[in-house]
Amino acid sequence: MSHSRWRRAATAALAALAVSGVAACGSAEAGPPTLNWYINPDSGGQAEIASRCTEAAGGQYRIAVSVLPRESSEQREQLIRRLAAQDSSIDLMSLDPPYIPEFAEAGFLAPVPDDVAGRASEGVLPSALAGASWDGQLVTVPFWANTQLLWYKKSVVQAAGLDMAQPVTWDQVIDAAQQQNTQFAVQGRRAESLTVWINALIESGGGSIITDPSVDAPENVQLGLAEPPAAEAARIMRKVADTGVGGPALSTAGEDENVSAFEDGSASFMVNWPFVWPRAQEAVEGGTLDRAVVDDYGWTLYPQVTAGTPSAPPLGGINLAVGAFSRHPDLAYTATECITSTENQTYYFTTNGNPASRASVYDDPAVVAEFPMAGVIRDSLELAAPRPQTPYYNEVSGSLQRVYHPPSEVVPEVTGPEAAALIQAVLAKEELL
After folding, report:
1. Whole-model pTM?
2. Same-domain pairing of 151 and 234
3. 28, 87: one domain
4. Residue 433: inside a domain, yes or no?
5. What is the DSSP letter of 386?
6. How far apart (Å, rounded) are the C-alpha atoms in residues 270 and 310?
7. Class of residue 78 by CB neighbours under 10 A (exposed 0-12, middle 13-18, buried 19+)
8. Any alpha helices (H) in 112-169, and if so which ranges?
9. In a 10 Å sphere around its CB, with 0-12 CB exposed, 13-18 middle and 19+ buried, how is residue 308 labelled?
10. How confident is the model over 337-389, as pLDDT tens digits?
11. Helix axes of 192-204 and 228-243: crossing angle, nearest 10 degrees
């Protein structure tokens, strides 16, 4: 099935399930319990999986989906407000990894049963497990994992003399882009994507934004923003800006703007998520992108900060959480095992473009046929590092975005300490974002 056809079919399935969910919530429950699954927007894949798992349950339960806002910060806000009011209608949630510690510390997540935790961890990539955990415990069920690759144009790499069969550094890519008079597309706008870039650079340099979360006294959170890896991250960000390879719109560039620049030829290098590939295929099918452009696409692991030291690519994705006030937590956890089955993760990867958390999925012939870079995605997830794990993630990310934006004003050995001071002041309630 073509991408455009499955997208139309999936949208119809999503609409049908959303209507059934509203009807179920508006009347007294009759028959099997209805589990309400609050999902992030996608191309209909989660709705289809809900339908599959409802059928597989054999009358034990039904799953109805409710779609959250598109922005992850807005998803967090809506769920937090409802859970703070002890909303029992929230049975399942598709939860962004950075917010998991906050939900866990607030008591908003039903504990994962030991037997479910054991099965949910089998064959799961280590970064996906790390992103689903808090304080050494699995508190959510890994669903799909995401990471960024370094995308490049083969023709430009050849002209620049770069050997992409070997790991490359940020400096090498920046220098090659400057030499070839092309752009290196990165996410520089003041948004969550900027925190993703900052964190990946610092982690790749061997550091961490937060070295001790200090849950009991947030104002005592220990930060690594004054350490050498943070200074090196700032140097790279400033070099992208000063050389001009980030493009004239660096301070407003996000994932979508970057991939547009990569498609139209303005950029020949880019760090971005795997959605780049299905988007290109759909554009070719729709006649808006020449096949020759896509045939020139290459991909490899996220750039290294220091030559010889493996990078720590960004970690994204979605995990499944069970609401602490659900009337049916046992059934909800049973449903998570159906939703995250190898079969459903394979389906979700091949149709919606969201990479699996289970390593074995990357060897499936259907996955490899749809995503020829599947092996590189898996290798990247083996190295990936989560964003700062802290119940105060919203405050930390907001502070970083304020101080590190725009990239053209980042100063090594200055910006990091300034961001640390703001984070500590915000956590101590001495300053507002």
Report:
1. 0.92
2. yes
3. yes
4. no
5. P
6. 18
7. middle
8. 114-121, 126-131, 154-160
9. exposed
10. 999 999 999 999 999 999 999 999 999 999 999 999 999 999 999 999 999 99
11. 120
